[in-house]
Queue: 2 jobs
Job 1
Amino acid sequence: MSERLDTVSVVEAPEGVELSLRVAGPSARPLAFLIDFLVRAAIFSALSWMLLFGGVGQALYLLSIFTVEWFYPVLFELFWHGQTPGKRALGLAVVRDDGTPVGWSASVLRNFLRVVDFLPGLYGVGIVSAGASREFKRIGDHVAGTVVIHVGRSSSALELPDVPPLAPRVPLTQEEQAALLEFGARSRTWTKARAEELAGELEPLTEAVGSEGRQRVLGMARWIEGAR
Amino acid sequence: MKREPFIAARKPRWKRLESMLAALSPGARAEVPERELAQLPRLYRQVCQDLALAQRRMYGRELVSRLNAMALRGREQLYRAPTRYLRQWIEFVAAGFPRLVREEWRLFWICSVLFVVPLVGVAVMAHERPDLLYSVLDPESLENIESMYAPSESLSAKRDADRNVAMFAFYIRNNVGIDFQIFASGLVFGIGAILSLIYNGVHFGAIVGHFLAIGYETQLFPFVVGHSSWELVAMVIAAVAGMRLGSLLVAPGRRSRARALVEDAPRCLKLLVGAALMTTLAAFIEGFWSAQPLPVSVKYGFGAAMWMLVIVYLLLGGRRRAA
């Protein structure tokens, strides 16, 4: 498939199938980080009441701060299926390069090495490293062998729009059939005008433009799908 | 087979797997009965097969991506490594960690020298030429440390039980945090770890030299002797871990640098975890023992025993079963 064009990383599973990981890019990850930063700040201020309770309170406070400082992402990634609150909000998750879940050592490595990624300030090294890597890996990801991917967004319907099936006039190759199916599945995410414009490109096949052209492309998709 | 009948025939199966995966996901409350759960591997393999077919026959991105997501989630559930944490930890502390440290004996001695030489050098210098001291420590922090250990003020009087706990936590956050930082900065070709070692050596050396010069050592030494063994050796080991990490970039051997890092970084991390445990023990001693108002001889005796214990542990730990 079109993995060279897309930010998709393909791994081969022992079950004999290629799984594609949709690698998360440079817009989603900083946002997730920002959310986590705010969550952490909220935790810090929420814990400050402990300071009112003398030495033991202070001790608990310092230990909690220490834990949050170093282990906030680690604990979430381990017990929340690779997601910190920020990552979950944006539908991201950390997995190993082969798509299996991160373990202790991978998670600790990638998060402790934020110290290096943060250099010389504001994740300078991390941004350069991510930009130079096809899978947007910062240094910590390289060392731990992890990758941040998009997960979720699986609710969209499988059914094509309900239009009468229409047999194409000429036999279509597999790629062409796939393109028509793709059109059918995606058409509901476009405006009508956009769908008609795209369907207009297929005028030689449909012998129609505008609304009618769109209807015919969808009909052929239905026909390829098996509807009669 | 056409797309539609393909979907229709498999949909019940996918629905079952999807609901099972949803029930197994972190936020879910639902319980999956054991007999259902036993079906998971089979359902997962079937979805993998369906995915392969859908990819091959180009049934459309929508379907493929849905099956792909399902397969990934199934994989996540199935390939979660079963772990027996407690046993692993005991094994690691009793045998694995000292063995690892012994394997790195060369780096261990290099790091020790990088720490001890500046310490002794600066201590002697500060003792002989006290004026030079201020080029290392700024007067304010020196005054701070001085007042902490001034003979007129009994150290223990300032420390009640409550305060001990707070100091324990403070030491953990501070010292274990330093271990982590030394480790991570070591990735930069080991430079970070080397600089940290020298810096800490100079810092401690300056304090020791200064206290010797002004005659406060009767306060300082009994305080630090108890936890010094665990704390200093742990710092050196954290640096060893960082240096080893950096060395994977400098000299990866017959592998690519990326490969070397991915393969050996977990081993470096184990060293760091051991160092962090040692530092935690040191913080425990520092918080609850070091400030106790006990005779100096007891303090020194305890300190000597701790040094012996560290040496014996690292030299002999896990030896018998290694054979």
Job 2
Amino acid sequence: MARLVIMGGGVAGHTAASFARKWLGKEHEVVVVTPNSQWNWIPSNIWVGVGGMKKKEVIFPLAPVYKKVGIDYRQAKAVSINPEGKDGSDDAFITIEYTGQDKEGQSEELTYDYLINSTGPKLNFGATEGLGIGTEMGTHTVSVCTADHAEHANHELQACIAKMRAGERQTFLIGTGHGMCTCQGAAFEYIFNIEHTLKAEGVRDMADIIFITNESFLGDFGMGGIHFSMGGYATSSKVFAESLYAERGMDWILGAHVNKVEEGKVTYESLDGEIDEQEFDFAMLIPPFAGVGIKAYAKDGSDITDTIFAPNGFMKVDANYNAGAYENWKPSDWPRTLQNQDYKNIFAAGIAFAPPHTISKPMSSPNGTPINPTPPRTGMPSAMMGKAVAGSICDMIKGAPEPTHTASMAEMGAACVASAGKGLFSGTAAAMTVYPIIPDFEKYPGTGRDLNGTTGELGLAAHWIKHILHFGFLWKAKLKPGWTLIPE
Amino acid sequence: MSKHLNHIEPYSPQFGTMVPMGFQKFLRTCVLWQIVRFVAINIRMTILILKSHH
């Protein structure tokens, strides 16, 4: 009998747990450790944040789903890993601290044969003065990172709409709250939903809407930009994104490291070194991400966190962490099996793995402040990594000597649908596909991407797909009949 | 036709990019055309997913 322990129950962890349970015989255990009692389809938080959906429509309780399929669910957070065991025992284990199940605050050691780290990120609001403290969001801005945050964002939005109806002009500032943020796509989608909502409410002419981003150009998306095959041209995502903002009369601030947030005002440093301010009445600023801060200890109790985790708290895997300068970067720098190289029974999937470097070219201001997006690895890539890692571990439990599945971001594509509006015939969306996620300039000179697989278009059709994804992925996550037929 | 461009200020950042006009906007919400695009996008995404699994 083998025990697979999965830390984290988000897209990557839940996918890994679901497939591992399906592929492994009942003699093996699959354990999920997650501090959350609810699963959240995060992409639809955007709709919650503008009142298009209720919170209850984007979440569901995990316990009944795991009970149904025989996954051992622990509502707890992982605190540390002892990959070599401890004095008197060679059994590897993690230490968890319960956050629910009537055991709040209790600690427990959980042994494992295989371990997947898919904890997702720590929302590092505390990295920017005034944005929050630690993982807690502050009071000056809103967020759509969790369903609760999104519900609060909508509450604030409705208050602004009421003021506009009363004749008070409002400034909306949407974007990234730090120079090293990722998830520009979420901010991108939210600003279009804000604009759509204000138009639908008849108050668009009372609003100034501004996008603030750490990207050096609109449409970088943390992937160094994309070239789409559009109308016979290889069209840069810069043109594609700028067009969307220009069409809607929205302004943008580029290359911005927000370093201070106060009531109604942000201070930011630009790539040219200038310090500037922007006032707002409503601001949704994405926080930077970090690892969740799990510690690691050797058998003798010495701290080996630096061996297993990168300084940013993400887990080291089979990536090339010594790639050096941008000019030396190669697609092969990116991990394929997602296996930790010091402890071969530990894997990482989704946001939890440490990328070898950014995808976008590193940039900094003359003051030395790094201002560039960090690599996106949410959604589709996360699910694919979760499935691949589960596949490898299942095969290794059955006797394979090494990982049998790969999920390199340099060998996979991603699809992204960014909606504006919720109504089936009143909304539109941008559907984008990119292949591969990591540009390969040797294989695809000029753009780094296969133009046959890298496309972008706007319209109702993409909006319908967004709706289908919402219901399809919730169905899949609930492990309802036929869930395996819905692709990651 | 110029109504689609009325909000663009000369030499503003928005001045330097492409802006969709009437026919392009019509296509985006034309249900018949969008049904065709719906099929096309789904095929495209399916191929992408198949290429991505190893």
